[in-house]
Amino acid sequence: MKQLFSYVFIFIIGILFAFFYFNNKENKYQSTEANIILTEIKNVSKLVVTESTFSEMYSYKEADKYFFETISFDKKIILSVNATVQISYDLSKMKIKTDTINKKIIIKELPKQEMFISPQISYFDVEQSTFNQFSKEDLNSITKKSINKIKETIDASSLKEQSKNRLFEELRKIYSMATLLDWQLVDETEAKTIKKTLKL
To answer: Is residue 28 part of a domain?
Structure first.
């Protein structure tokens, strides 16, 4: 009878050992899969989705008038602005949570668009009077206004929308990888844009 109990005890221990071994192995496997997907996201962490060139001509005039505007000291300048504009997303700022038990990659928040403008500015057709000349502060202010004009042009163009579409193209690749590994990509962002675009 003692021998029978010993066999039963060893059998139960064997089952428990096998259960914990295979359960732990499955958790490690799922954790590895999660790391593969997260590594893929990190590989494109700084995603420059769009690069374009904008050109603007910016004209500035100013006049100092005296004696009931009978005497005028004028100054004017024309700026040529050629700017390389890059719009990017830093995917390392994307807020992600992994649920290895249910095999889910949960995206909580998408990174914001980052815009980098590299302007090349040329001054020409500069006219100024002896009593009304361009100061360094004037030129800095005019340069700033000319760059703001470029930003307005960018806002009016479809560049930002194109950049957003490129971001979702990259997310689609990550979604395909998650699906291939039998994982689910879950959109918990405020706007649910990923869900609408990728049709999760």
So the answer is: no
| DSSP reduced 3-state for 64 | strand
Asked whether residue 161 is assigned to any structural domain, the reply reads yes
Place of tokens 């800095």: 140
Tokens read off for 106: 């949960």
Residue 14 lies in a domain: no
Number of domains in the chain: 1
Rg of the chain's alpha carbons, rounded to an integer?
31
Tokens coding 34: 């999660």
Give me the residues paired with residue 78 across strands.
59, 124
* b (16+ CB within 10 A) / e for 70-103: eeeeebebebebebebebbbebeebeeebebeee
Q: Are 185 and 200 in contact (CB under 8 A)?
A: yes
* pLDDT, tens only, 96-119: 888 888 888 899 998 888 888 888
Hey, what amino acid is at 167? L
- Is the model's pTM score more than 0.70? no
Tokens representing 105 are 């990659």
